[in-house]
Amino acid sequence: MTLNQRIEAFSNLRNYLIKSSSELEQIIQLSIQHNAWYTENSIRKVIDGILVMLEKDKLTEWLQQYDLINSKPKNIGTIMAGNIPLVGFHDFLCVLITGNYLIAKLSSQDAYLLPHIAEKLIEFNEGFKERIHFVEKLEKVDAIIATGSDNSARYFESYFGKYPNIIRNNRTSIAILDGNESSEELLKLGDDIFQYYGLGCRNVSKLFVPDNYSFNHFFKSIERFSDIYTHNKYRNNYEYNKSIYLINKVKHLDNGFLLITENKELVSPISVVYYETYTSLSSLKEKIKRQGDKIQCIVSNSNTAFGKAQQPEVWDYADNIDTIEFLLSLN
Is residue 86 domain-shared with residue 206, that is, in the same domain? Predict the structure, then answer.
């Protein structure tokens, strides 16, 4: 397959996802039944993001900066996470669009969506049939791309460290507020916090706010997200964390569906957002820089726009590691 043929196949895949066939609907419902954290809305949000990535002009613009003509196909072992639906799609795309062979181990939490997408891609170009393999055990690979928790990352390092690799561990996202945000901006920040119930590395789990910041405006602006409380697993997390804070007399704010407490850690539990105050932006920037290896995205008026944390472009790489450059370096 030529690069243009691969681009054309992914463009056709986009057209398929837009139409949302009954076959795709069945796979979506199967995924929801299998994983209680997955909802129809969350899966459709992911698909909407994929549609943006697969715009033909964007694919062409993205890939023209790389020398893909002389690249030699390799077997790329890819370990997919399952914290949010289709979280491994970008790795799937990078491996295949560069002409490599995908040897993928799926998360048990997300076992149906990507295989269905792969089936459709093969329909659009049968050349992908020999290039896509879903396996239980990774063997005979030339390189590894693995995504997981800090614990699993240590396992990946010990087991796959002999291969060229990209091994990703826990990251989270933060937001910097200056106190002048509009209600609309704070509502959009609610998307960054609540989308996928806070399970993604692009979800904001920590707020940096000025000294003496009042959360009244913030709470009022995010009231529209109150129905998140109706989700059973989210509600269980909220009730559990609330009880822990009450029993241990941990100072916190509570609007009925979100808990906010002061904490220097970056990663908060589901249904909780941590906050920390700052006195100057310059000292805050230094602090964030020191924690950079744990931060996926920074939401603010001068970084990623409010409401855009979960909407990466196709050229936005996880952990700021260029996956295409890594694949090309294998030559």
Answer: no
